[in-house]
Automatic annotation (TrEMBL):
Gene3D superfamilies, alphabetized: Aldolase class I
InterPro entries listed in its UniProt record: Aldolase_TIM, BKACE
Necessary cofactors: Zn(2+)
One Pfam entry name: BKACE
Keyword NAD: no
Classification via PANTHER family: 3-KETO-5-AMINOHEXANOATE CLEAVAGE ENZYME (PTHR37418:SF2), 3-KETO-5-AMINOHEXANOATE CLEAVAGE ENZYME-RELATED (PTHR37418)
UniProtKB keywords: Metal-binding, Transferase, Zinc
Protein name: 3-keto-5-aminohexanoate cleavage protein
GO molecular function, one term: 3-keto-5-aminohexanoate cleavage activity
Length: 309
């Protein structure tokens, strides 16, 4: 039986900086408004980061998260998924703080360390809104996004066993799938798994159709019927890759974290624009879009009444 397509929307992220788009949500009110609009457009999962409202830099501060999480919950039934990736250079303690405080239904969980390189973006901009932006990007030339087996195990125990949280397992390369299989074999996580395969981040697997097929094959081999497959792709690869994933029976992720554009050379004016576009594509393919309740059931989530916001 063909499943409905779960649409995740990653609303702001910790990659893009304010100079890159005037439409990137920064303040808690902007993040809340964008998240609610994305849910109304068809997203059943909202993947959320926080930013310092003064200058837009990523922040792990639970107090900032708590300025928008209740607003989102009051206005939509969408599943709230809080990042544990945070922003580049944050400690694991900082990255887990908001999730521990909020106890959401889902968090992200990166499944391995790798070189997370954003410095090529420096060449696209001549001036910057804030002094922190070019240094933030330049530092990625020497940056390793640290997610050791110890880090992953701690996250699984503190959030999974401690709070009943399920994970969006972010897999940036083939080895990350095997890392997840290792923890599943140890019984530290149990199905159903939401496996988010990620393409086009410099340092991770490239945005190549052969890689898309290969990641799908390996995930099938490792997890069989125990997982829900989702795809995101960076920048211009976003819509082609998520469309291909939907055709192949998978789920999709869009949002301004992953791409600032709605089409070639055209900035997306909102997250809802991207959600509405992929929803049109999915429905034109005679596929249905999953409701939040369908997503909860398929992913085995604890329910929105058991969160701390």
């Amino acid at each position: 039986m063909v499943k409905s397509v779960i649409i995740t929307c990653a609303v702001t992220g910790g990659i893009h900086t304010p100079t890159m788009s005037d439409y990137l949500p920064i303040t808690p009110q902007e993040i809340a408004d964008e998240a609610v609009a994305a849910a109304e457009a068809g997203a059943s999962i909202l993947h959320l980061h926080a930013r310092d409202p003064k200058d837009g830099r990523p922040t792990p501060d639970p107090k900032v998260f708590m300025e928008f999480l209740p607003r989102i919950k009051q206005q939509t039934d969408a599943v709230v998924n809080i990042t544990t990736g945070g922003g580049l250079g944050m400690t694991l303690e900082e990255r887990l703080a908001a999730a521990i405080a909020a106890s959401p239904e889902m968090t992200s969980l990166n499944m391995g360390s790798f070189n997370f390189a954003l410095y090529p973006l420096l060449d696209k901009y001549k001036t910057w809104k804030h002094d922190w932006e070019p240094a933030y990007l330049e530092n990625t030339k020497e940056f390793i996004f640290k997610n050791t087996f110890g880090d992953i195990e701690r996250t699984m125990l503190e959030l999974g066993e401690g709070h009943g949280i399920k994970f969006e397992f972010e897999c940036y390369d083939v080895g990350h799938l095997y890392n997840l299989a290792h923890f599943a074999d140890r019984g530290l996580v149990k199905p159903p798994f939401l496996v988010q395969t990620i393409f086009g981040i410099m340092g991770g697997i490239g945005a190549d159709e052969e890689n898309l097929m290969h990641m799908r094959r390996i995930a099938n081999k490792l997890f069989g019927d125990d997982y829900e497959w989702s795809v995101l792709a960076a920048g211009r690869h976003q819509m082609p890759f998520v469309t291909q994933a939907a055709v192949m029976g998978g789920n999709v992720r869009v949002g301004l974290e992953d791409s600032l554009y709605i089409g070639k050379g055209e900035l997306a004016k909102s997250n809802a624009d991207q959600v509405a576009k992929i929803r049109r594509i999915v429905e034109d393919l005679s596929l249905a879009v999953a409701t939040p309740e369908e997503a909860r059931k398929r992913l085995g989530l604890k329910g929105g009444d058991l969160v701390n916001f």
